[in-house]
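Shipment paperwork, digital attachment
Item: protein structure file
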Amino acid sequence: QVQLVESGGGLVQAGGSLRLSCAASKKISSINAMGWYRQAPGKQRELVAVFSGGSTNYRDSVKGRFTISTDNAENTIYLQMNSLKPEDTAVYYCNINTWFSDYWGQGTQVTVSS
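Attachment content:
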């Protein structure tokens, strides 16, 4: 069973930066997409950034501030978050989608204070 382990969350002041990492416990093949989602209290989980088919996509509210990157050799996903805002506060989840399975991390809390 593949596990995704996230790290890098924490408390930061508005305007600060954090880098999230997500490492797979073993090699994953037939990947369709690798991405980050987030869920704020009382809200639905939403897509933040995704890498698929050689291209990346971001939700509008994070464009220009967040950058997703991947290390395919290690099945690791990163999310560099700059210029953080209080509205970025959420639990962030990494996701790897394959032809056969959908893997999720356990979530890492990001809290941005104003």
